Amino acid sequence: MMPTQYLLLCLADHQLTSQESERHGGSRDRYVRCLNIGGRWAVHGTRQSPLLVWHTVQAGEAQAAAERSAKARGRPVVVLSRSDSGWVEGREIQVFTPAFEPALLGHTAQSEARARRLRTEVDKLEAFCLVVRQASAARNHAEFAEISRAAGKALHAKFGGGSIVSASAWLTGRKGQEALQSVLTGEVELGGPLSMQEIAETIALAQEAQRLQQQAENSTSRQ
Q1: Can you tell me the distance from the alpha carbon of 61 to that of 49, in angstroms, rounded to the nearest whole number?
Q2: In the structure, what pLDDT confidence band is assigned to residue 24 with cuts at 50, 70 and 90?
Q3: Residue 8 · residue 79 · CB < 8 Å
Q4: For the chain, what is the radius of gyration of the CA atoms?
């Protein structure tokens, strides 16, 4: 059975949507940010911040909501039709009701302390992904060693310490996953050279490397 189609609001001129579409190709719809209940433009919805949706029979209401949002924000907001077999109402998505009207008008303000903390964690996410990607592209041991030395110096200068190994462990750990979620839910925007797709690919790469390492260690311990 085909998944249910829903209507969502997306930001027509989101800078990262254009950048990622140009870099990776394919339809812009793959990279859009949609409105969540916190009034932020998110890659996907979570239990804490589901995406706002309308049923297809509510097309007029969705369009009116887009117009109200565009007027309040001063930016073009458009209606997008989308489906996902993993969506569950009340979890990844939330059907719009008048209680969510404030989300159309703007996002919920963060405290200064939370905003600074999230920005720091996402800066780490981007920096750690960058050095892990560079290391994974090394063609031989000598090149890896040189990249490792340069990464250590760069991470020490920016964060007071770090290495490729510790960066990879951070990405696969709780803090890395929380930083990724803050980007996916629109709480913080990426500011570095890597796209959202490249960030996700790098974390998957680190997770696979960790899995293979654990597998090798378990095999050795059984010998």
Answers
A1: 21
A2: very low
A3: yes
A4: 20
Cα 56 to its chain centre, rounded Å, is 27
Q: Which two tokens stand for residue 125?
A: 């996410």
The residue among 128, 130, 133 whose CA lies nearest residue 172 is 128
Cα–chain-centroid distance for residue 159? 22
Long-range contacts of the stretch 131-139 (C-beta < 8 A, 24+): 131/155, 131/164, 131/167, 132/164, 132/167, 132/168, 132/171, 132/202, 132/205, 132/206, 133/194, 133/198, 133/202, 133/205, 135/164, 136/205
Per-residue model confidence as pLDDT tens digits over 48-77: 899 999 999 999 999 999 999 999 999 999
Question: Which range among 31-35, 95-99, 158-162 shows the weakest confidence by mean pLDDT?
Answer: 31-35
Dist CA 120 CA 188 (whole Å) = 10
DSSP 8-state class, residue 162: -
User: Which residue, 26, 36, 43, 9, is CA-closest to 190?
Assistant: 43
Angle at which helices 141-159 and 112-136 cross, to 10°: 170
More confident residue, 146 or 209: 146
The pLDDT of residue 201 is above 80: yes
Question: What percent helix, strand, coil does the chain show, rounded to 5?
Answer: 60, 15, 30
Q: How many CB atoms lie within 10 A of CB 179?
A: 26
Average pLDDT value for residue range 15-27: 54
